[in-house]
UniProtKB/TrEMBL annotation:
Biased composition (Basic and acidic residues): 62-78, 91-103
Name of the protein in its database record: Angiopoietin-related protein 4-like
A Pfam family that the UniProt record links to this protein: Fibrinogen_C
SMART domains xrefs: FBG
All copies of domain Fibrinogen C-terminal, residue ranges: 199-421
GO biological process: one example: blood coagulation
Main location as per UniProt: secreted
Keywords, comma-separated and alphabetical: Coiled coil, Disulfide bond, Secreted, Signal
Stretches assigned to coiled coil: none
Gene Ontology CC entries for this record: extracellular region
Localization, UniProt: Secreted
Length: 423
């Protein structure tokens, strides 16, 4: 019996070991590829489901459009039928008028003959009677003509109303058709198109800074959609480094800020002028991640100051309590002081300030994060010019106590937030 040498056995074992490692690597790689294929199939299934929903939606829109077209056709027939009635009536009136004119002409000729041939008193009396009879007949025919004209006018009014309704229905159908065409053109039915629309780059931004990161550099009004919130419009102020979401602005006193809780909760004013964005919208933006609040002020001498804080806002259950902490040294001393529990928002009808024996919002006007009524109020009564008014009115102006004191009315204020940049 012949046996292989020990070296041959080692070579063969080494080769088998390498082959085993190669097979194992191949199996692992195949498993990874299978997982990728499975994930892609799941994504494809989701895309197909979305496509099915979109198709059903378009079918429903088409059915509704066809039903609207049927209704429009029915109304068109009604309008045509309605318009036929005054046309027939007008035709009858023309025929009646022609017949009346012929009869009147004949009666006039008869009167002339009677007047010409009447020689005796008896003939004259008979002619006079005939003339009265003819006059009565003419008046009767005239009244009939007036009645016909009035009926035609009424029918014409009905026809005008039907035409207006028909034009409105035609415009509505045209708009629906245009909407359906635009929807079909915008929605791409390919799988790649569905995946592209599902990508985050095509979704609404969560705030102005996300819009800035996408490349938008122009300040203006934009639509954002914070997480777990409905879309709404904001004014974005774009700088070289940030996209700021403006939450408050005072500039000319054109808007009354002396309002109650519901207005401050929901917001008021024009985003292109003076406005308060609203506590609930501020909360939906700021709760997504840490934010920085920047307050910018100007006086009637043309000087400006600003101060920045780390910014956090609690929910309605905590009365939108404010938590701020100055972030960088500033020439403007802070006039917002909050404790560990924050500073609740307060209005005249929701007195939640820290002063127990007074209603700061009622005394100072507007709604604000009041502490003891004396540090700041950027939502107070706007005063045009730096002239000091009576003491009662001086307490109600827009002020920042650490800059010119509590009785100096500020010219402009702006509050804006942006996500905090991690160092």
């Amino acid at each position: 019996v012949q046996y292989a040498s020990w070296d041959d056995v080692n070579v063969l074992a080494h080769g088998l070991l390498q082959l085993g490692h190669g097979l194992k690597d191949h199996v692992d790689k195949t498993k990874g590829q299978m997982r990728d294929i499975t994930a892609k199939l799941k994504s494809f299934d989701g895309t197909v489901a979305e496509l099915s929903k979109l198709t059903r939606h378009l079918q429903e829109e088409g059915d509704a459009l066809r039903e609207k077209a049927k209704q429009l056709g029915h109304r068109e027939k009604q309008v045509l039928n309605t318009s036929a009635e005054p046309q027939a009536l007008a035709e009858d009136m023309r025929t009646e008028r022609e017949s009346t004119q012929d009869r009147v002409g004949r009666l006039e000729r008869k009167v002339d003959i009677l007047l010409r041939d009447a020689g005796s008193n008896e003939d004259r009396n008979r002619s006079t009677t005939d003339a009265h009879t003819l006059q009565w007949m003419m008046e009767t025919q005239s009244r009939r003509i007036d009645d016909l004209v009035e009926r035609v006018r009424q029918q014409q009014d009905k026809l005008d109303k039907q035409n207006v309704r028909l034009q409105a229905l035609q415009a509505e159908v045209k708009q629906r058709r245009l909407k359906s065409v635009v929807t079909r053109k915008v929605e791409d039915f390919s799988v790649d198109g569905m995946l592209e629309r599902a990508s985050p780059s095509n979704e609404l931004p969560s705030d102005c800074h996300e819009l800035f990161l996408r490349g938008e550099k122009q300040s203006g009004v934009y639509t954002i959609k914070p997480h777990d919130a409905k879309p709404f419009n904001v004014f974005c102020e774009m700088t070289s480094e940030h996209g700021w979401t403006v939450i408050q602005k005072r500039e000319d006193g054109s808007l009354d800020f002396n309002r109650l809780w519901s207005d401050y909760q929901n917001g008021f004013g024009s985003l292109r002028g003076e406005f308060w964005l609203g506590l609930e919208k501020m909360l939906s933006i700021s709760k997504q991640r840490p934010h920085v609040l920047q307050i910018e002020l100007s006086d009637w001498r043309g000087e400006t100051q600003s101060v920045s804080y780390s910014f956090q806002l609690d929910g309605e259950e905590s009365n939108y309590a404010l938590h701020v902490q100055p972030t960088t040294p500033s020439n403007l001393e802070s006039a917002l002081t909050t404790g560990p529990d924050g500073l609740p928002f307060s209005t005249a009808d929701r007195d939640q300030d820290l002063k127990e024996d007074a209603n700061c919002a009622l005394q100072l006007s507007g709604g604000w994060w009041f502490s003891n009524c004396g540090h700041s109020n950027l939502n107070g009564r706007y005063q045009s010019g730096p002239t000091l008014a009576q003491r009662h009115h001086r307490k109600q102006v827009v002020f920042w106590k650490t800059w010119h004191g509590r009785y100096y009315p500020l010219k402009t204020t702006a509050m804006k937030i942006t996500p905090a940049i991690k160092s």
